[in-house]
Amino acid sequence: MPYSTQTDxxxxxxxxxxxxxxGKKEEVLQSLCSFIEPTRNEPGCLCYELNxxxxxxxIFTFVEKFDSDxxxxxxxxxxx
Length: 80
Known about the structure:
This protein is α+β, with helices and mostly antiparallel strands. The chain contains two helices and four strands; from the N terminus they run E-E-H-E-E-H.
């Protein structure tokens, strides 16, 4: 999943974009939605938001914000 990161006063902001394969968008949506609550409960998670494109319903974008590099690294290890 391609993503970009930037820091904002020691916070980490991530924009991650995913494009579902043809015929898989609802399956992908269900899977992505299952990440939301557990991630929001992770230490240091300030924002974890899933968006879906109005132009192409196969395109999903996560906006993530963590209070530190350490919190983001912990999040990344959790999905490894």
